[in-house]
Amino acid sequence: MEDHTATRIYARPAPALRRYVGSYVGFDLRGFPAGVHCGPPGRVLTAVISLSGPLDVAAGVDDGSPVTRFSSVAGGLMRRSVAIHHDGCQEGVKVSLTPLGARAVYDMPAADLAHRLVPLDELLGALGVELVDRLRAATTWTARFAALDELLLRAVGRSAGGDPVSRVRPEVAEAWRRLLAARGRVQVGRVAAELGWSRRYLTDRFRGEVGLSPKTFARVLRFEHAHELATRHDPLPWADVATVSGYADQAHLVRDWSEFTGRSPTAWRRGEVLLGTG
């Protein structure tokens, strides 16, 4: 591989935002081969603000999904990877929102964004335009993260109806918490029973808020765990990835991996030129 540089800077949002925003990641990747990066599904809603050229993104990998150009893009929870077409260089900031935090920042349930990619300013209006301008004008990561805190706090402050999360049924919030704590390795029927709901009622209410059924969200969480293991600098063998992340066997992992990324694990690893960038 040709000479390349990779910078990733991680930051936590301001304390008042942490119920809604999980993390900020600044990235500057240069000198890699051009390719298509699979942005995997996971527990968070992702917004990406480019600090250089536009982002060319499709809502699916190798499935004919149209490629759309964004200067900044927000997505809901997905059950498949998005395809990020790149020329070997990427610079920007990624913001991770919790599903329950979508109400706070975007003033809508996460379900309204499920399986969708939309321009960030379509959700935040003038505030989104200002956010992109501020991030691009800043010259340090510290200044960019400070601008994110300021603008996202303003977004939360203008949310209608007081505390946004108070509009979420507590049973849905608790089911979400339990699924996260178990990394998807929990029986949805048992969770529903412990909450005093039927499985069907929980499924309907959970999907109406989050955008995925509890069962699908649990599968996404299990895949997310496997993906984390597979992207480490010293990745485990695939059979061990399957065991540690809760799959019945490697064949089960391969089926889910193919569904969520559009590629087999081997083809995915071969195509991900940005792997190992920290």
Task: Explain what you see.
The protein is of the alpha+beta class. Helix content is about 40%, strand content about 20%. The protein has 11 helices and 10 strands. It has helices spanning about 100-105, 120-125, 125-135, 140-155, 170-180, 190-195, 200-210, 215-230, 240-245, 250-260, 265-270, and strands spanning about 5-10, 20-30, 35-40, 45-50, 55-60, 70, 70-75, 80-85, 90-95, 115-120. A 6-stranded antiparallel β-sheet has the order 1-2-9-4-7-10. A 4-stranded antiparallel β-sheet has the order 3-8-5-6, with no helix packed on it. Helix 3 (about 125-135) packs antiparallel against helix 4. The two termini are about 15 Å apart.
Low-confidence stretches: none
Query: Helix count?
Result: 11
Strand content: 15-25%
Shape descriptor reads: globular
